[in-house]
Description:
alpha/beta; Arginase, Chain A; 9-stranded mixed beta sheet; two-stranded antiparallel ribbon; 9 helices
Amino acid sequence: xxxxxYEPWKFAFSSENxxxxxxxxxxxxxxxxxxxxxxxxxxxxxxxxxxxxFGFEKYNTIFNKELSTTFxxxxxxxxxxxxxxxxCQIVEDTVNEMLDLNLKxxxxxxxxxxxxxxxxxxxxxxxxxxVVHLDAHRDLAFEFIGEKYSHATVMxxxxxxxxxxxxxxxRSSSADEEEFVKSTYNIQTFKNKDVHKHMDALEYxxxxxxxxxxxxxxxxxxxxxxxxxxxxxTPGGLFISEMETILETLSHKDIVGFDVVETxxxxxxxxxxxxxxxxxxxxxxxxx
Length: 288
């Protein structure tokens, strides 16, 4: 239905695309991983994450809720391998099409750079955004290996759009990134140990966010014991129960977009794909 998309698979429980209900959610996959610096394979993430979604029941026993949210899966964006900036532009154009239909985007990656396109479109629509960024890494490099559009620079580009950042699960960064965080006023950090030891403080902070919120989940935020197939696995990550608590807390906010990126596997049934699919499933169950 949307330009620049094709349909290799659909997420479980998605509605047919013929009659669009406004103020619903729309899924697109972005099979792109051309700037990866360690483990490639996230271009296959949209396929394996969708396939894993068929392992879940419609009733979510964790939250004691039936998945009743209306959402649509429009398939994958036609990316340009090797060209991150143009691929982000295609994502931006596709998200703008979704916004014209009064749909909110859910992005399945693909590498983390694909969030740039989605957030450019949403920033133009909503103005000031709070981006809740769950990741092992800050992704705040100004350039990475000479490239401004990269999985390692995505949140720097997002910050340049004027967004406030809440970075959760951080446990790896450069000295330059740490200095940049200290130099600005609108980046709040909850490192991995903060989440493990002070979840109540994180919940309190998230509860008090005002205005439109975008959630961006890099799968390496999850401990690699549970989600090993990612671009840059880093020990000491979050547990599934902690991710559930964060999503439940955020579900009461004005969520205008959501992405789950960096599932790097070519294997159906891969544990990382199952966890990524569960996070989308939980989000769709919680949001109304």
